[in-house]
Amino acid sequence: MRGQWLKQLCGGLTVIVGLATQSLAATPSQTTPARVGPVLVNVEARAGQDLSGAWHWSVDPYRDGLAGFHGAEAGPGHRRHDDVDVDAVTRANPQALYEYDMRRSPVVHLPASWISHDETMRYYDGLVWYQRTFTATKTPGQRAFLRFGAADYVARVYLNGKPVGIHEGGFTPFAFEVTSLLRTGENQVTVGVDSVRSADTVPPTVTDWETYGGLTRPVRLVLTPATYIDDAWVRLGDDGRLRATVRLQGTRPGDTEVRVRIPALSLTLKGRTGADGSWTGDAAEPSALKRWSPEQPALYEVTVEAGEDRLVDRIGFRTLEVKGHDILLNGKPVFLRGISLHEEELGKNPTRAMTPGAARALLGEVKHGLHGNFVRLAHYPHSEVMTRMADELGLLVWSEIPVYWRVNFARGETLETARRMLAENILRDRNRASIAFWSVANETPVSDARNAFLARLAADARALDDTRLVTAALLIDRVQEKGQSVMVVKDPLVSHLDVAAVNTYNGWYSDDALADLPGIGWRNDTGKPLVFSEFGADAQAGFHEPGLKRKFSEEFQAEYHRQTLAMSEKVPSLRGLSPWVLKDFRSPRRQHPVYQQGWNRKGLLSETGQRKQAFDVLAEHYRKLEARQAHTEQARAP
Ligand code: GCU
Hints:
The chain has 638 residues and is of the alpha/beta class.
């Protein structure tokens, strides 16, 4: 294993997460899931301070703040992260030369992507420095961390002028310990965020969504006792046992008493941690427990206590499994009435700042507008705000990491990056009852390297979480059989998945007449449930052409959905749908001057939330499925 994976330098801590090199052959370290930095699960429930608000920013297109003249290390006149008041220094020493001054640079409100900072940043792709000060009090024995909800794509973090760590990946949380660097009084945090991707990143350069560079989720200073609860996972196993696993970190993680309490169920699990600081306990499912489901999204207050640390969360309990072609939720077959969506709030100028209000506006349309019970959060881990909202509203969730299109599957570091993203995602959200699927990829071309890469991820997901289903959005093959077109699920990866999901765009990316769609056959010999993870057609809201029904008209889109849904009704193993897509979203690949203007218009809602005709087509279809499901359950009820 060459290169740097996780390195600690004496004095100031510098933690580099990513950038490893190794071959794809399964080695022992590859059988255990990727290691991640501090998890600090349920971060909102912890002591500390939210550093959202006013931050100074400064663009650095040539990365001058990292490497200076002829590539030498950046000098004091360019190092944006230095702990210096440039104005004061130059007053004291008029000879001094600084070609930046973070404290007098423009100010923006974070979290937000820089594409909304000002019009010059709309298409900026590169390095931007952010800085703010905050006041803290150092308490002996207390630990301190800087925790980031997400930074797209590579983040370099400094505290009081000292480097604390680098993180690669735009959609998952990361944290660095800063106990030794924090000071009582004013502190200065600086973050250099670089959005540039390459053929080796995850995702690679080309996607079908906008790059929202920057600090797009909250930054927090987290304070913990010397020994703290780093991770706590409480779930219902499909063996009907309620299980809790707690992992302590810090000065004395071992041989420490842990208690997990669910007061509403008068349930307490307790025990002592082992030498590695972890403990697992279980109990029979309390008879009074109301299982979580979309129809009844019951959440329980759960308290985890260990030593001086205490966390309170709201958690739902449910079981999920597959049986033949059926997906069983709490032991009962369920049909997923879903839709796909990107993490982009409603409005003409979104900036990927997902607030509870923005999440409720989007998911509320799925739950109440479409009669849906499922959302595919594409193509990367969305904010925890979104998954907690799905818990509250009662929507099953498909959560995905951005192994998207042509990833460099043959490169060991790229695999390690993807593995770490998966682990960061699962460790953040495995207490979310709503999450049903961990998806390891979207529309990736079949090859040996790809199959091995994705099989590795699927195994990691199972090792990290045995209570959810593993899947991926696959490409589908089309063959001719006795003069009929037949869609065939052939992808060898399915053998590593619980559910086979396919993206199908007959009638949009093919010239099939819409009326012919129901006549297209489907063959799924995998023995597993099938889900249509994507299908869709663009329409510009308000463009009506009842006669000609050209592509991009609302009428075409509505008819496309009508016929595709009719086709879906003929697929015996189909157990779910997540059409592409809830809302029009920004994509640099969509530049039709009349209908697109930089937006993918496959939304059933326009970017401002205007419902298109197709919205009602899908809503009507789901209302019928919902009634059918309720009827079946009534008939099945003792
Ligand atoms: C693909 C892809 C999406 C894309 C969509 C489209 O299937 O997964 O990311 O936006 O198709 O073409 O609109």
